[in-house]
What we know:
single chain; mainly beta; Immunoglobulin-like; eleven-stranded antiparallel beta sheet; four-stranded mixed beta sheet; 2 helices; 31 strands; 6% helix; disordered C terminus
Amino acid sequence: xxxxxYFVIVICTLLSGIVSAQEWAGPDTSVCQGAGALLxxxxxxxxxxxxxxxxxxxxxxxxxxxxxxxxxxxxxxLVAIGPDFSNKVVDKVKVTVELGGxxxxxxxTEPDGTTxxxxxxxxxxxxxTSIEWSIEGxxxxxxxxxxxxxxxxxxxxxxxxIRATDATNEECYAEGTFRVNVGVKQVxxxxxxxxxxxxxxxxxxxxxxxxxxKLKAIxxxxxxxxxxxxxxxxxxxxxxxxxxxxxxxxxGSPSFMHxxxxxxxxxxxxxxxxxxxxxxxxxxxNTLLKMLEQFCSPSSDLAVGYDPDKSxxxxxxxxxxxxxxxKQIPVEKFNSPKKGLKEQLEGEINGSLTAKVCFPPxxxxxxxxxxxxxxxxxxxxxxxxxxGVSKDESLASPASWQVDELNFSGTLKFGVGGxxxxxxxxxFFGIQGTLLGDITISIDPxxxxxxxxxxxxxxxxxxxxxxxxFWLNPDNTVINxxxxxxxxxxxxxxxxxxxxxTQFQ
Length: 505
């Protein structure tokens, strides 16, 4: 009996140096989110294995004395195992968070002017605690009411930190994050053939003769959509994947598309490259040419003193013909989503000019024999011009007209000559003889950009003669001889002038 009493005394003595199991996790405590609380007690054995749960807010789950900094009030459980599993201690501690769980409603804003505001509040707050609200770090243009926690006027995308501070203890605070300007920043329609041509912000992209257009949504929050994917349901065409941020549409129906996502929109119009021929400018040119022709072709009244039908002399005469077309073709405007225009003027102009003027008018002696003579100068010219010019707004320099084709050819002749005639009437028959001679110089210029070539021909003297023997009745002609004789063969020179226009460029 005495031996039993001895062992009891020893055990009690030993246990008196050991902390009660209810005190191993430490006393219940209150903390601020930012301050934290030290759990456990320093007198707990060092050779025990410790396991704390839950892990949220703990600096370590296996330390003898971890620091707890939970976002809300949490009860932690400690399980301590002695060496060789000789003993097991279970204890609990409650950590009350005076301030914590800063959240916003809504949890993000969108840049559409209506939902660009939110309200911050605490999930944990001790009654009677006065709170001051603030934004820590980058504010992205956000403004927070320090008393109410209302957030508004955010002007850029990103994430802000909202802090709630105990007005009586600045060391006690809680924080939470808030995403601003989440959603679609802009929608683009891009010409895949010419990527510099793109429309945005309600504009219309015109596509002419191209198959594909890229449709793209740009997020406010970062470079790619991580959540809140663009919604294309308001568009007239849909992407292959409902929430695709980028997709292509090939040529086909419809010819006009409205693309919209996140309140941002853009339009696409497909136009067939149909040529439109306008005749007004051609008619105007035709009128001007006719006016010039009439001005340069005076009447035969200038030939007073002789009958033009009975003389080699002729008044000035000018003629024009043309085959011109003026076209307008829609094109894609250079570096612009707008519709451009290509203008083309092409065709052919032909002109002619003839004149044979006597100095003086024909003179005749009378009456028998009858001598007739006259001198004259003459000239003639023909021209042929093929031209094509255009102005194209799809090019980098759309304001200037470009020469697509320009070719010119023609002939210019001039010279001097004279006519001598005699008429000898008889009782029964008559004789009439005529000699006509002239000297001609001709020039044949040809122009084909950038070269001009000219060729000169000289016909020194050409004589035409005729002899008629007839009865007094002119209808009974018995002899009618005519002939044309070149006293010298025509002389043709080599091209005497070649002009290279590139030297002036």
